[in-house]
Specification:
201 residues, mainly alpha, 82% helix, disordered C terminus
């Protein structure tokens, strides 16, 4: 699986990384903790351009955050909650998840946008209250881009440094990558089957 993902990223370059990171911000089973280190590894081996690959990851991340921001801004609280009631199951989201993100945003303000980009699960939802509270678009974009750059850059850098140690870790990279993907998919399916995000009528 490690070889498959790195080959796919090598073939698609920055566009593939941007697409995967966009999906990571919308569709839970795709983790940035797997995508960006592998993208960094590919860049270190010379398969892709390091700067373009990092920019691709950043652009995809910000685009995904922007989608949630606009949904919150355009739909408003009640319409968004009804949408989550109907479709949240497939994103493993509930209105309680959104309420928690709103509370966090209310307590921490713009700092929540910056630091929230670095916290798993929070980074997907934190854009929603920013949209619901009609935070300025430029302000949101600046804080989101800054926070995303720290997170994406750290993961990319870790993968880039991995290349020099590849001979030491090549024996367990594939099984570990396979295991991570299997656990993520299994957790997602379990949450969907449980009906998380679906409210009783």
């Amino acid at each position: 699986m490690f070889d498959f993902i790195t080959s796919w990223i090598a073939a698609g370059g920055a566009f593939a990384v941007a697409f995967l990171m966009f999906l990571e911000n919308v569709f839970p089973p795709i983790p940035s903790e797997l995508v960006m280190p592998l993208a960094g590894y590919n860049a270190a081996t010379g398969e892709t351009n390091p700067i373009l690959t990092l920019l691709g990851g950043l652009i995809g991340t910000v685009a995904g955050a922007w989608l949630w921001y606009e949904l919150g801004r355009r739909l408003g609280r009640e319409r968004l909650m009804r949408w989550i009631d109907r479709h949240g199951r497939w994103l493993t989201l509930t209105r309680e998840d959104v309420e928690r993100a709103l509370g966090w945003f209310d307590r921490h303000g713009t700092a929540a946008i910056f630091f929230g980009r670095m916290i798993p699960t929070v980074r997907t939802l934190i854009s929603v209250p920013a949209g619901l509270q009609r935070m300025g678009r430029i302000r949101f974009l600046l804080y989101t881009t800054a926070g995303s750059l720290v997170w994406v850059g750290a993961l990319f850098g870790a993968g880039y440094l991995l290349e020099s140690q590849y001979e030491r870790v090549q024996g367990w990279l594939n099984p570990v990558t396979n295991g991570i993907i299997m656990v993520i998919v299994a957790l997602y399916l379990w949450r969907v089957i449980r009906g998380k995000g679906r409210r009783d009528c």
